[in-house]
């Protein structure tokens, strides 16, 4: 059994109040206009939420990953897209924190932990999603500079006014076995040859900007190589397990939010002369949501606790990601059923959560990829 500390319970209470007061009133507008919540980002930074699990030396809060999972859970309970902006920022932050030089951490990590900037990670390409080793973007060393050519797609936090460094993966040669040698690079905003493409129109995560990146003879100093040359995939894979815990936390937020809204609606509405809460078919739906929320919370908190303890957690994180995101989709679906015609109106949060839930089954490894990972652990 996972027992939260008094500090973790205080974090939950504080973030829940923050989400209700600062995010809930603007959630529909953010969804409708696909706006990025800059004021929320600034306030979240002041509260220390964005850099919570990172070193205080670089502007973080020195907290633990379980507390960070709770932060994302509570934010996603109100608006998953807003929570994702913090999650996606952490992907870039983890790479720089784990593999960056002191100079890189001071220059690029600190601003995205203190909310001055927002980080992004560029891995996915049009023909390289789950098979990230097949990327085509190339980086060639020319004297004291790397010259990058290629493109990326489906990049969260791209093309915001405060987008800071983008950490991208590029092919830097061939290994002895003929496979691509992949390295990671830090590309600052405004670098000549680095441009943004269209802003992608999604069914979910609409308040979290997602776009294309283009690199045409983009030159960066050789010092912007992140860690060792050729270590790009190893670096990314070492952080992706943590990312799956965080995506699962977003899914848990959707399950809990769907449950809370459904219970409130069942008490408010009547049909055929009786409150909706009297109908057993609807009672069963919220019973399932509550059960799935409880199970998901145990799985996520266990995986995060293992991560904090420095113990292996990859299998548990894949299990948590698989279970929670699929149950989030189910909960969002059932919440819409409970709300009836109102449930398909975008002014209702249950409608917006439905698109958000679908996204979660895709990112950080699809459900099919998670089943492959889990089965490998079981069979080896």
UniProtKB/TrEMBL annotation:
Q: Which residues form the Acyl-CoA dehydrogenase/oxidase N-terminal domain?
A: 5-116
* GO molecular-function terms, A-Z: short-chain fatty acyl-CoA dehydrogenase activity
- EC number(s) stated in the UniProt entry for this protein: 1.3.8.1
Stretches assigned to the Acyl-CoA oxidase/dehydrogenase middle domain? 120-218
Which residue stretches, if any, does this entry annotate as coiled coil?
Answer: none
Q: Does the keyword Ribonucleoprotein apply?
A: no
InterPro entries from the entry?
Acyl-CoA_DH_CS, Acyl-CoA_Oxase/DH_mid-dom, Acyl-CoA_Oxase/DH_mid-dom_sf, AcylCo_DH-like_C, AcylCo_DH/oxidase_C, AcylCoA_DH/ox_N, AcylCoA_DH/ox_N_sf, AcylCoA_DH/oxidase_NM_dom_sf
Tell me which family the UniProt entry assigns to this protein. Answer: Belongs to the acyl-CoA dehydrogenase family.
The name of this protein is Butyryl-CoA dehydrogenase
Give the organism, scientific name. Answer: Ammoniphilus resinae
């Amino acid at each position: 059994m996972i027992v939260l500390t008094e500090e973790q319970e205080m974090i939950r209470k504080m973030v829940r109040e923050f989400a209700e007061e600062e995010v809930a009133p603007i959630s529909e507008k953010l969804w409708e206009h696909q706006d990025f919540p800059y004021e929320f980002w600034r306030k979240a930074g002041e509260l220390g939420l964005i850099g919570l699990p990172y070193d205080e030396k670089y502007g973080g809060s020195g907290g633990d990953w379980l507390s960070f999972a709770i932060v994302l859970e509570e934010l996603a309970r109100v608006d998953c897209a807003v929570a994702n902006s913090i999650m996606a920022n952490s992907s870039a932050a983890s790479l720089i924190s784990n593999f960056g030089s002191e100079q890189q951490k001071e220059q690029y990590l600190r601003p995205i932990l203190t909310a001055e900037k927002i980080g992004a990670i560029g891995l996915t390409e049009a023909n390289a999603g789950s098979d990230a080793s097949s990327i085509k973007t190339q980086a060639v060393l020319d004297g004291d500079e790397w010259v990058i050519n290629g493109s990326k797609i489906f990049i969260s936090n791209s093309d915001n006014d405060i987008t800071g460094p983008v950490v991208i993966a590029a092919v830097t040669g061939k290994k002895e076995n003929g496979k691509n040698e992949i390295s990671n690079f830090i590309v600052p905003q405004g670098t000549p040859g680095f441009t943004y493409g269209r802003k992608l129109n999604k069914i979910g995560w609409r308040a979290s900007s997602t776009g294309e990146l283009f690199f045409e003879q983009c030159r960066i100093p050789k010092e912007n190589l992140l860690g060792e040359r050729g270590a790009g995939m190893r670096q990314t894979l070492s952080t992706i397990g943590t990312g799956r815990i965080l995506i699962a936390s977003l899914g848990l937020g959707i399950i809990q939010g769907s449950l809370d809204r459904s219970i409130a609606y069942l008490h408010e509405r009547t049909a055929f002369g009786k409150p909706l809460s009297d109908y057993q078919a609807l009672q069963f739906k919220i019973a399932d949501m509550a059960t799935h929320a409880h199970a998901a919370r145990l799985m996520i908190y266990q995986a995060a606790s293992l991560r904090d303890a420095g113990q292996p957690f990859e299998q548990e994180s894949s299990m948590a990601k698989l279970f929670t995101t699929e149950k989030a989709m189910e909960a969002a679906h059932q919440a819409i059923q409970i709300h009836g015609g109102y449930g398909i109106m975008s002014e209702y949060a249950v409608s917006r959560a439905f698109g958000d839930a679908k996204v979660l089954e895709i990112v950080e490894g699809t459900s099919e990829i998670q089943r492959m990972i889990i089965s490998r652990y079981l069979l080896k």
